[in-house]
Specification:
The protein has about 290 residues and is mainly β. The protein has 1 helix and 14 strands; from the N terminus they run H-E-E-E-E-E-E-E-E-E-E-E-E-E-E. Helix content is about 10%, strand content about 65%. The chain is globular.
């Protein structure tokens, strides 16, 4: 119940930002939302020889941002990045289609509230939820919206650049992270046990949203977290710095066709000593929701 309450709080804060903007056409609000879908497919008949195998893949992305004043000195900003995709592969011998496997999966929701003081920096509070639609790490047991990482932070922020709907924000503060993971304890009985890990430390986040060209936009988020304390001291290398750098390049070909390049670099020593890299390139249909 505690977990669900916090998830509802994140979504609720996003709606608090969303509803007033939709209720009144205020030019002070910066709103953007786009949905895109990319699909590729090829297949072979049973009579085909040569060792080829068909494949089909699809990926869908939703990017959302809304920012504006809730009150004369209170600025709210909510963002969402949602992605999911699957890949289907044909057996080379039988030409039967295998069970689809996940190719990309992301839930990233964040809401921040800052108070304009007129100083060099402004105080802020923030909530961020990171998760996946489907945890397929154990193939026989599907776990939805798992694991969940909830980050609560407060500190100081500054807008380094602003022009029309473009901006560069940087903030630093104290953060508490809570990770909830429904781990499989019995694959035969399909039973799970929820484990919770909490750590606290210093957080730095830089958000970039600028236009590199009339048809090319760049969105980036660099998150750095330095743990100072952790609830489970047995976690290996827990004091190590965590880095998450996400980049999205979106190029508009026509009104409804776009090229989307998503690149992510992760450094999380408790998981792996090496950096982890992910890249997704999609050419498909897009629709501007606002």
């Amino acid at each position: 119940m505690k977990t669900m309450a916090k998830v509802v709080a994140v979504i609720g804060l996003a709606l608090v930002s969303y509803c007033p903007a939709m209720a009144q056409e205020n030019p002070a609000w910066n709103k953007s939302a786009d949905l895109n879908l990319a699909v590729t497919q090829n297949s072979y008949s049973n009579s085909w020889v040569g060792g080829e195998a068909g494949s089909a893949s699809w990926v869908s992305n939703l990017n959302f941002l809304i920012e504006g004043p809730l009150a004369p000195k209170w600025i709210s900003k909510s963002t969402a990045k949602l992605s999911f995709g699957q890949m289907h592969i044909q057996d080379m011998e039988t030409k039967h289609w295998k069970k689809p496997v996940k190719s990309t999966d992301l839930i990233d929701l964040e809401s921040t509230l800052r108070y304009l003081t007129g100083w060099f920096v402004d105080p802020y509070v923030a909530l961020r939820l990171e998760s996946e639609f489907l945890d397929a790490s154990v193939p026989t047991v599907n776990r939805y919206i798992n694991p969940m990482l909830l980050t609560e932070s407060t500190g100081f922020t500054r807008r380094l650049y602003e022009k029309e709907k473009q901006f560069i924000d940087s903030r630093i503060g104290l953060a508490i992270r809570e990770e909830f993971d429904r781990r499989v304890v019995d694959t035969a009985a399909r039973t799970t046990k929820t484990t919770t890990t909490t750590d606290g430390g210093l957080e730095s986040v830089t958000d970039v949203s600028i236009n590199l060209h009339a048809r090319i936009g760049w969105t980036s988020k660099l998150s750095i977290f330095k743990p100072l304390t952790v609830s489970d001291k047995t976690v290996p290398h827990w004091p190590a710095i965590h880095v998450n750098w996400e980049n999205i390049l979106a190029a508009t070909v026509t009104k409804y066709i776009t090229v989307n390049l998503y690149v992510q670099w992760l450094y999380d020593k408790p998981i792996d000593h090496r950096g982890r890299f992910k890249e997704t390139l999609a050419l498909g249909f897009t629709y501007d929701l606002m």
